[in-house]
């Protein structure tokens, strides 16, 4: 019977969750997950599930420097490859976060958060943490509800990291569907893309690529000449 765990145990090293070699690559790669998924499909899409005020999860409040468990602004999306859900993206920021700290967050819609974060020179990413999630975890329940399935083969692997911009802190958690291991690369490695500094480019080009649904081959070709993720 699946193990019940409503609160995840987070580890600072992937060895703490014992992933397969394929999953380890997805978990530990610090490249933008958006661009990595684009390299593994023909059509990439962000499906927004919710963006609203809600009580943060029990293991989140300390990571975003709250004094206790409080309401936050949260955003859940599915990242889809060729219309198959591959990742649940879960983002939280404090309610007192300002538009100066996160000017884009409230207007993202179904655009990719990752392209904005990785294209902004003011954003610094923190250490990755890793966890195994089971059927009672709130994020797993949201995955089931969003896809209409009763459950998965457990555990599901997840990672999270903080992003800081000025004085603001954002926590991004990514939970991988089991189908992620079936993906095969069909495009060039995004890590081989030249950096903006090397090409003298501005981060202002990033929103050009924040489309709800697009052809991955076309976008990666454009990104490879203009954006380092």
Automatic annotation (TrEMBL):
Coiled coil: none
Subcellular location(s) per record: Cytoplasm
Domain of life: Bacteria
A Pfam family the protein falls into: Chor_lyase
Keyword Cytoplasm: yes
EC numbers on record: 4.1.3.40
Signal peptide: none
Binding site for substrate: 75, 113, 174
UniProt pathway: Cofactor biosynthesis; ubiquinone biosynthesis
Catalytic activity annotation: chorismate = 4-hydroxybenzoate + pyruvate
Catalytic EC class: lyase
Keywords from the UniProt entry: Cytoplasm, Lyase, Pyruvate, Ubiquinone biosynthesis
GO MF annotation, one: chorismate lyase activity
Job description of the protein: Removes the pyruvyl group from chorismate, with concomitant aromatization of the ring, to provide 4-hydroxybenzoate (4HB) for the ubiquinone pathway.
Family, per entry: Belongs to the UbiC family.
PANTHER family: CHORISMATE PYRUVATE-LYASE
Name of the protein described by the UniProt record: Probable chorismate pyruvate-lyase
Gene that this polypeptide is encoded by: ubiC
């Amino acid at each position: 019977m699946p193990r019940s765990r409503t609160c995840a145990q987070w580890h600072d090293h992937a060895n703490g969750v014992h992933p397969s070699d394929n999953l380890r690559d997805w978990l530990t790669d610090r490249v933008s997950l958006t661009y990595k998924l684009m390299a593994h499909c023909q059509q990439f899409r962000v499906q927004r599930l919710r963006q609203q005020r809600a009580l943060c999860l029990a293991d989140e409040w300390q990571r975003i420097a709250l004094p206790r468990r409080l309401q936050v602004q949260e955003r859940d999306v599915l990242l889809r490859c060729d219309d198959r859900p591959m990742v649940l993206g879960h983002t939280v920021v404090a309610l007192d976060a300002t538009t100066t700290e996160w000017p884009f967050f409230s207007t993202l819609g179904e655009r990719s958060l990752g392209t904005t974060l990785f294209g902004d020179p003011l954003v610094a990413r923190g250490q990755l943490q890793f966890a195994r999630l089971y059927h009672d975890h709130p994020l797993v329940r949201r995955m089931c509800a969003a896809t209409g399935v009763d459950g998965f083969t457990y555990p599901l692997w997840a990672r999270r990291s903080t992003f800081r911009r000025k004085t603001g802190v954002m926590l991004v958690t990514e939970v991988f569907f089991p189908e992620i291991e079936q993906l095969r690369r069909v495009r060039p490695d995004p890590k081989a893309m030249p950096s903006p500094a090397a090409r003298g480019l501005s981060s202002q080009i990033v929103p050009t690529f924040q489309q709800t649904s697009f052809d991955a081959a076309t976008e990666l070709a454009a990104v490879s000449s203009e954006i380092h993720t």
